[in-house]
């Protein structure tokens, strides 16, 4: 298969990129499951954007930088915040409807933790669904875009990898590299295809599935991070995992998030005896403190009381308001037996957002020529040590614009460069894996290990033990890669294992607590780390 632009992923970043690039060449989007399966579709709260006359770019920048605790790249913050209104207008042109106030006709702006103004554009509480619906409709209308579902990228095809394959070597050494596309597994047929492209974009989303409890969809297995790292690109700040404080606590409610917007509208957090507790942890901001503060407060209450959950109560607000503002949350909670207009909701924290990722410049370019990373999988420096609520859809949206602009300008230059013949995928002596338990067991071990040892509160000893326990699993997975014919489950296991290793490494290097990383042995911020990213590179696995 051959295309001008290969886009991996059908969330907000992948779909916007496809629409921006399709008038400049052929586009293939490969996506792991169905085209609707993404974190974007699950977004409830909305997109932050300075749009109200009472608001100011400087305030949004300040809130973002304050949340990022010394690690935001301020040039990127300015770029994204200031480009937001223009990109939002374009999103509306694609057909996205944001909720308006019927009496004023102006946007009904939501408020979330860490924001000094109401600035969250939303479509009820199913903003992500609305975005995905419109963008997919537009993508399907475009004759230059092809979407391949159940297509999973295994690894990037790079010039170094191809040379190594031709020499019969198992891995490529570090060299000055150019990306020429990717090997993809067609999960329906089990075949591996080489998809050749002038430019390749990893828009693969987050890595929540590395943890036992997560708000993320099943597709969020850190694939982009693992693929780019294996190809030799640098990754950064992976220790900064944001834990969302409030996921519904119910044995059957897999991944259901209770949006921060509820706390923005006055919902209180209560301990199991019904007492509010946030004042103890952040007397000023209380329920609207940043997510890491609220998640740690809940973690501490759970440890103090020995109970399984705390409660979130919005029932004192008028019933009509709750149902109108939060129809999705109301309906879903009702389905699980909780009437949020009458009673508090049981909630627990869960892994939610990866603040770090593949290192890119302000156009989404990685260290490898022709390879871009956009959206949650990338680390542009926008979020620093902690993401401000509703800033991630915004980053995906604006950075897709940036990447498209750069891609269009360099496409002809890359087309003219050397053409390389690609060896077909060689299964060698690999056989079918007839014991699925080899995958499911390691899958469970890794996710539990990460939750218990590398979770909301970390310690140096637990990080060291996590590294030791992961090592033999990584070796086993590496061996299986050569011994068995690869499957979707195996590829995901391989990627969560590597991403877990990188998170542990990054967390061990950071001898302080900052943003989404809290180590009880180093509970304070260390000035030496101010503005220092944790950058990891394949051949050294050292902080560079
Ligand atoms: C429950 C929930 C609520 C949220 N609410 C908000 C909110 O209100 N506001 C906000 O700003 N952010 C929110 N976020 C975060 C935000 O939704 C994500 O950060 C953002 O949508 C990421 O977009 P993306 O395009 O980078 O990736 P995604 O939307 O996650 O899409 C990733 C795509 O890549 C595909 N993929 C992954 N690996 C491969 C592979 N190997 N091969 C092929 N395809 C692959 C996936 O199938 C998927 O299509 C929320 C997240 C969750 C989980």
Ions and ligands: flavin-adenine dinucleotide
On the 0 to 100 scale, the average pLDDT is: 92
Shape: globular
Q: Separation of termini?
A: 37 Å
Reconstruct the topology from this structure.
Elements: E1 2-8, H1 12-21, E2 27-31, H2 39-42, E3 47-48, H3 57-67, H4 74-93, E4 120-121, H5 127-141, E5 145-149, E6 151-158, H6 159-166, E7 179-186, E8 191-202, H7 223-231, E9 235-236, E10 241-248, H8 261-264, E11 268-270, H9 278-281, H10 291-305, E12 310-313, H11 319-325, H12 327-335, E13 345-354, E14 357-359, E15 371-373, E16 378-379, H13 392-415, H14 437-453, H15 460-483, H16 488-509, E17 535-536
Parallel strand pairs: 1-2, 1-8, 2-5, 8-15, 14-16
Antiparallel strand pairs: 3-4, 6-7, 7-8, 9-14, 9-17, 10-13, 11-12, 12-13
Structural commentary:
This protein is α/β, with parallel strands linked by helices and 544 residues long. Among the domains are: 244-350, Succinate dehydrogenase/fumarate reductase flavoprotein, catalytic domain (Flavocytochrome C3, Chain A, domain 1, Alpha-Beta Complex); 437-536, Up-down Bundle (Methane Monooxygenase Hydroxylase, Chain G, domain 1), CATH 1.20.58.100. It has 16 helices and 17 strands. Strands 1, 2, 5, 6, 7, 8 and 15 form a seven-stranded mixed beta sheet that branches. A four-stranded mixed beta sheet has the order 16-14-9-17, covered by helices on one side. It is globular. The protein starts with a strand and ends in an 8-residue tail after the last strand. The model has no long low-confidence stretch (mean pLDDT 92). It binds flavin-adenine dinucleotide. Flavin-adenine dinucleotide (FAD) binds at residues 8-14, 30-33, 37-40, 42-47, 127-128, 152-153, 203-206, 215-216, 219-220, 223, 257, 353, 375-376, 390-393, 396.
